[in-house]
Amino acid sequence: MPVRSLWEDVRGAILGESHDYTTEPLGRAILVLAVPMVLEMSMQSLFSVADVYFVGKLGSSAVSITGLTDALLMTVFAIGMGLGMGTTAMVARRVGEGKPEEASRVTGQAILLGVAVSGVLGVLGGIFAGPLLAAMGATPEMIAEGKTFTTWMLAGNGSILLLFLINAAFRGAGQPSQAMAALFVANALNIVLDPLLIFGIGPFPELGLTGAAIATVGARFVGVGFQILQLRRDGGALRLHAQCFVPESKTMARLVRISAIGMLQFSISTLSFIGVMRILSGFGEAALAGYTIAVRVIIFILLPSWGLGNAAATLVGQNLGAGHADRAEAAVWKTARANTVFMVLVMLLFLFASPAIAGVFSEEAGVVAIAVDCLRIIAGSYVFWGFGAITVLAFNGAGDTTTPTWINLIVFWAFMLPLAWALAMGLGMGPRGVFWSLAVAHVFYSAMGVGLFRKGRWKRVVV
C-alpha cells in the first residue's frame, strides 16, 4: 500500500469517514476500524495512568487504596463490558442488515439499562465503601484515608458504565472515531483537574486522594454528555431521538439475554482480579502498590490490543449480518497476526524498560521492585496472548457469549486462582508466585480461545 494511501486511510479513520465494512478490502477495513479503536482504548486506560501518576506523589498507601478501589470497580467494569458487548453485537448486526433505525433503538435501550443498573450500584457502593475496603484487606489507617475516595468512585460508577455502553454502540455501528473523541475530551479534562484538586493549585482546594476521585468522575460524566450530543446529531448510522428511549420489552429482553452471559463472562475474569488483590494484600502495602502500578501500565500498553480485538468483533458482527461468514473468519485471523506482532514489541519493552517505566510512578524502591517483577514475568506470555485475545473477543462480536464465559471460568477460577495461592502461599514464592500464575493463565487462555474458534460454531449464532 503506498505511503500516501496509508496516511489518507489513517487520517480518514480518525476523522470518522464512513465505510461499508462488509465490502471494503479486508486489510483496509481492519485498519480504518482499528486506528480509532486503538486510540479509544488507550485513552480509556489513560484515566488510570494519569490518576496513579499524580496519586503516586501521595505515597504507597494512597496508591494501594486506588488499587483496592479498582478491584471493587471491577464489578462495574464487568457489567459495562457485558452490556457493551451485547450492544456492540446487536448494533453491528442491525447495521450489517441495513437497519440503522433499529440500531439506534438498541442504543437507546442500552442507555436505559445502564442508568438503572448504575443507580442501584451507586447507592450500594456509596453506603458500603468502608466495609468493602475492609473486606479487601485494607488496614484501618487505609480505610480512614481512602473511604471518601472509594465512596466517590463507587457512587459515580454511572460515568464508567455509560461511557462503556455508548462507545460500544459507536463501535458496533462502525463509528469508532466518535468513541475516541468522547474519551479525548474526558481525558483532557481529567489530566487538568487531577493536579488542581489533589494538590490544591491556585484557587482550588487541596483534596488529596479525594480530589483524584472527583476529577475522574466529573471528567467521565462530561465525556458522557459529549457522547449524547454526538448521538443527537445527523450523520452516521446512529441518531438518538425521543422514541429510542421508550422502553421496548422485546429489544431489552434480547439485549439482556445476550449481555447477561457477557456480564457473567467478564465478572468471572474481573472478580478473579479481586482474588489476586486479596492474596497480595497479605504481603503489605509495597506489594499492593507495585502490582497496582504494574497493572495500570499493562492495561495502558495492552488496550491497543483490545482495540484490535474490538475491530475484529465489529467486522465479525457486520459480516455475519451481511451473510459473509468466511470473510468474518478471515478478518479475525488477519487481525490476530497483526496483534501478535504488536505483543512481541510489548514483551521486549517490558523486559528491557520496566525499571524506567515503574520509576515514573514511584520513588520507593520496594514498590518499584514489585512492579518490575510483575511486568517482566507476565511479558513472556504475550506472544500467545496475541492470538488468544482476538479470538475470544471475536466470539463476542458474533453474539456467542457462552464460549468465552466457559473459557474465563476454567482459566481464571479453576486454574489461575488456585495456582496463585499455591505458588504465593503454599510454596512461599510471595508476589512472584501470583505473577507467574497470571503468565501461565494467559497461555492457557490463548490455547483454549484459538482451539474453540477453529471449530466455527460461532458462525451459526442468532442475534
Tell me about this structure.
It is a single chain. This protein is mainly alpha-helical and 463 residues long. It has one domain (23-460). Helices cover 83% and strands 0% of the residues. It has 16 helices and no strands. The protein has helices at 3-15, 26-55, 60-96, 100-127, 129-135, 140-155, 158-172, 176-199, 209-232, 249-281, 285-321, 325-361, 365-379, 382-397, 402-426, 431-455. The radius of gyration is 21 Å and the shape is globular.
Residue share in helix:
over 70%
Counting helices, strands and paired strands, the structural category is mainly alpha
The biggest sheet, with number of strands, parallel, antiparallel or mixed sense and barrel status, is: none
Tally of helical segments: 16
Rg, nearest Å? 21 Å
Query: Low-confidence parts lasting 5 or more residues at pLDDT below 50?
Result: none
Strand content: under 5%
Mean pLDDT: 87
Separation of the first and last Cα atoms: 36 Å
What is the element string, with H for helices and E for strands? HHHHHHHHHHHHHHHH
**Total discrete domains:** 1
Query: How many beta-strand runs?
Result: 0
Q: What is the overall shape?
A: globular
